Amino acid sequence: MLSSARRSLPQTLRSRASLTRVQSAAISSISRSSLLAQPSRSAAPAAALKPASFARTMSSHAESAVRPEPDKVLQDIADYVHNYKIDSPVAWETARLCLIDTIGCGLEALRFPACSNLLGPVVEGTIVPNGTKVPGTDYQLDPIRGAFNIGTAIRWLDFNDCFLAAEWGHPSDNLGAILAVADHLARKGEPLTVHDVLESMIKAHEIQGGLALLNSFNRVGLDHVVLVKVASTAVVSKLIGLDRAQTIDAISHAWADGQSLRTYRHAPNTVSRKSWAAGDACSRAVHLAYLVKRGEKGMPSVLTAKTWGFYDVLFKGKQFDFQMPFGSYIMENVLFKISYPAEFHAQTAVEAAHIIHQKLKEMGKSSADIKSIRIRTQEAAMRIINKKGPLDNFADRDHDINYMVAYPLIFGKLTSESYTDEAAKDPRIDELRAKITCVEDSRFSREYHEPDKRSIGNALLVELNDGTVLDEVEIEYPVGHKRRRHEGTPLLLQKFKNHIQPHFSEARQSKILETVEDAKILNELPVNKFTDLFVKSAHW
């Protein structure tokens, strides 16, 4: 019967069956020979050792399932958010100015369809009960979508605050998440005031800026909005009532995300995603915090885990360095973009260009008389905003120092409209861009990082066609710098007035200004009442 069954198998299987019998016989013979050759029963057979050795080898490759203590960075951030008391009057006053300025920047962005077209609910017409209200609109959204809307508007024109170090960024981006959540909670009846918003802003600034001081995410190709996500997640966690352990869990999820690539900020891929990337980070932060509130656990060694952690996967195995403990340094030293909607490394260059434009005017000359322009600048500007060749779009232009210098040299101004396709059609702009050369000044690069200076120096040297060389105009500190805060504050308030004017009646503008200019009234105002000042409504 067995023989019959074998004949019914395919040829290949019959061959394998024969081979198997031969192999079995050989193994049986070898085994008998080995047993006969054994010197004594006390000596362990080599074959008997192999399974145990194999098991030990496999066991040595197994991952330990023991959960470690959370990474120190996670703990330090959570402890700061929950326990640190802010006692710096400078930080509180700067935060007030920052809130005013940031809201104004968002309102100004709404005048540009490329921004406003991205806003609103995902499903048109959706109104969320007790939802987040978006300044400058009549939208009322869930806090996740609200964070995207507010964060996108804030960042769109590259006109909100800035902090520059090993990593660059705009800490007021975090207001997208903070205001969205605080407004929603206040509408639910929680007793949150603008004071709570300002505290969250100071701490979000400190987390984002503290991580940026010595750690360059751009060097590994990552965008700085990773720090917006981390900082926003941390402060939002406290706002929604998470405890220390839950806050650590939420922050770990922020680090675990894949993180955005900087490529959308650089030629040849510069696109408007750079303008909504922070809004995206804000919405993600709110989403992650609420997931943890619903019971989602975190990853305690999300940064340090061998092979799988952030350091090994995305930071070339390097751990974060910190220049100082978390406090209020970043808010106290934040940079405001006051006079020009220009990438911050070019702010002093743009200011110098305005001075030279006026000088040319006094001489009876114009940009047409310019033969060459040399810009001495910092290393960061050389890497980020020094572009040659055609500029494709708004996002390309507001990140090119050559464009940002050429435009005011020609027109004596630089506004948000200066970057539009219509404005860029003037052939004189590219003709003048071609005459500009940027060189790094090592002193500017060094003092850019010094904690007691943090300068953003630029110097313009212009030669005319007739051989005249104008005096070089060097500016180290922009008007939005801490060293020029006294000079800059009135200009910052005027900037805010300019931004609210197109949106609201004179009566509403007066009410807004009366509220924001009185620190005591502003601090005590419920968050929803503050947001209502900026919402489109029929009774105003």
State the main characteristics.
single chain, 540 residues, mainly alpha, 2-methylcitrate dehydratase PrpD, 60s Ribosomal Protein L30, Chain: A, 4-stranded mixed β-sheet, two-stranded antiparallel sheet, 8 strands, disordered N terminus
CATH class of the largest domain, named Mainly Alpha
- Give the DSSP E fraction (strand runs of 2 or more residues): 5-15%
Ranges where pLDDT stays below 50 over 5 or more residues in a row are: 1-49
Rounded radius of gyration (Å) = 31 Å
Mean residue pLDDT: 90
| Global shape | globular
Task: Say which CATH homologous superfamily of the largest domain is assigned.
Answer: 2-methylcitrate dehydratase PrpD
Whole-number count of domains = 2
Helix percent reads 40-55%
Strand order of the largest sheet: 6-5-7-8
Organism: Trametes coccinea (strain BRFM310)
Keywords: Lyase
Protein name: 2-methylcitrate dehydratase
GO molecular function: 2 iron, 2 sulfur cluster binding; 2-methylcitrate dehydratase activity
